[in-house]
Structure formats: C-alpha cells, structure tokens
Amino acid sequence: MLYLLDANVLITAHNLYYAIDAVPEFWAWLVHKGSAGDLKMPLENYEEVRRHHGRGERPVVRLDQIRGG
Fold first, then answer.
1. Which of 6, 29, 36, 57 has a 20 to 30 Å separation from 12 between CA atoms?
2. What separation in angstroms does the CA of 14 have from each of 1, 20, 40, 61?
3. Which burial class, exposed, middle or buried, applies to 65 when counting CB atoms under 10 A from its CB (0-12, 13-18, 19+)?
4. Per-residue pLDDT of the chain (69 residues; tens, 9 = 90+)
5. Are 15 and 8 a contacting pair, CB within 8 Å?
6. Residue boundaries of the structural domains of the chain
7. 32-44 core/surface letters (b: 16 or more CB in 10 A; e: else)
8. What angle do CA 29, 23, 34 make, to 5 degrees?
9. Nearest-5° angle of CA 65, CA 8, CA 35?
C-alpha cells in the first residue's frame, strides 16, 4: 500500500499528538515505510517540512527516508 503524506501530517503529529519522545513507534513506522518506498509526498510538501526543520526546531524525521529519494 502506498501512503501519500501532506506536510501537515508530520508537522501536526510532531507538535501536538505524537512527540518523538512520547510515541517513537509512530516515527519508526514512518522511517520503515519510507525506506521501503511505501511513503511519498509531493516536493512542495517535502520543502515545507524542510523549512520547518530550518527554524532550529527538533527534527521530525529523516526526510530523505520519507521522500524515498
């Protein structure tokens, strides 16, 4: 199954519901699915998440693993 992600999925999950320290399994699942090629996100959304990282905030997840190259 292919999952298409919007930037808001990652940003909102990170900020409100699934903090990395609280629910590391969610982020591990994203990395696993991204590495397997089961997650994709439009380039514009990828860049939005990247800008979110650039504000000095804690990384959400390794974006290269989600975007799938």
1. 36
2. 23, 7, 18, 9
3. middle
4. 898 888 888 888 888 888 888 888 988 888 888 889 898 888 888 787 777 665 555 555 555 555 444
5. no
6. 3-67
7. ebbeeeebbbeee
8. 20
9. 15
